[in-house]
């Protein structure tokens, strides 16, 4: 899949030779963009875990998209069934539509696999982006780094399928949680 978007953003599937650029973008975005929302200790824990992930990348089964402007990779997103596992944009390219196009690529891939609901564990930094993209928070949570540092985030979800006649996407918290558990447990 190769698709050129407005502002000359090209979205394509990642290739093995993109790996180092992807990790550089993840590192740079974490250091720069998350520094106002997380402590230096939390940032360092995240950066240490990026190095762990880098050494284990072959074991992952994610579908990874990259965004290019010209010949430069400026962002990436990763998806595995039901989950947005990553979405990072290089700090020099934020607020230029790169993240939106990467998220659309993930959502389109999920929808093509008949996934009706997509979830993400969004950082404090990324939460407004996901809200603007139609995701709803259903719980506050945290991830624990490999060094035991707690990093707060929000579990969010978006209904990908259009509402059928007479049915609307749930908006109350209990319904959202019940639907989330339904698709986690039985995949519907």
Explain this structure.
- The chain is α+β, with helices and mostly antiparallel strands.
- The protein has helices spanning 19-33, 40-55, 98-112, 127-132, 173-186, and strands at residues 2-5, 9-13, 63-69, 72-80, 83-89, 117-123, 136-144, 150-159.
- An eight-stranded mixed β-sheet has the order 1-2-3-4-5-6-8-7, with helices on both faces.
- Strand 4 and strand 5 (83-89) form a beta hairpin.
- The longest helix is centred in the N-terminal third of the chain and has 16 residues, at 40-55.
Quick overview:
35% of the residues lie in helices and 31% in strands. It has 188 residues and is an alpha+beta fold.
Shape: globular
Q: Share of helix among residues? A: 25-40%
Number of helical runs? Answer: 5
What is the makeup of the main sheet? 8 strands, mixed
State Rg: 17 Å
Order of helices and strands: EEHHEEEHEHEEH
Unreliable spans: 163-168, 182-188
Secondary-structure blueprint:
Layout: E1 2-5, E2 9-13, H1 19-33, H2 40-55, E3 63-69, E4 72-80, E5 83-89, H3 98-112, E6 117-123, H4 127-132, E7 136-144, E8 150-159, H5 173-186
Parallel strand pairs: 5-6
Antiparallel strand pairs: 1-2, 2-3, 3-4, 4-5, 6-8, 7-8
Sum up the structure in keywords.
188 residues; alpha+beta; eight-stranded mixed beta sheet; 8 strands; globular; disordered C terminus
């Amino acid at each position: 899949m190769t698709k050129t978007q407005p502002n000359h953003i090209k979205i394509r599937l990642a290739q093995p030779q993109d790996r180092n650029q992807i990790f550089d973008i993840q590192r740079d975005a974490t250091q720069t963009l998350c520094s106002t929302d997380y402590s230096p200790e939390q940032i360092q824990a995240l950066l240490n875990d990026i190095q762990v992930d880098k050494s284990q990348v072959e074991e992952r089964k994610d579908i990874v998209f990259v965004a290019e402007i010209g010949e430069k990779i400026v962002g990436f997103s990763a998806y595995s069934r039901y989950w947005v596992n990553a979405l990072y944009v290089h700090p020099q390219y934020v607020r230029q539509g790169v993240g939106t196009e990467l998220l659309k690529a993930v959502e389109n891939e999920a929808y093509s696999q008949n996934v009706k609901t997509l979830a993400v564990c969004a950082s404090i930094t990324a939460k407004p982006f996901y809200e603007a993209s139609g995701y709803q928070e259903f719980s506050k949570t945290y991830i624990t780094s490999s060094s035991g540092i707690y990093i707060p985030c929000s579990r969010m979800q978006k209904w990908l399928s259009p509402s059928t006649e007479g049915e609307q996407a749930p908006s109350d918290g209990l319904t959202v949680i019940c639907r989330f558990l339904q698709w986690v447990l039985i995949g519907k």
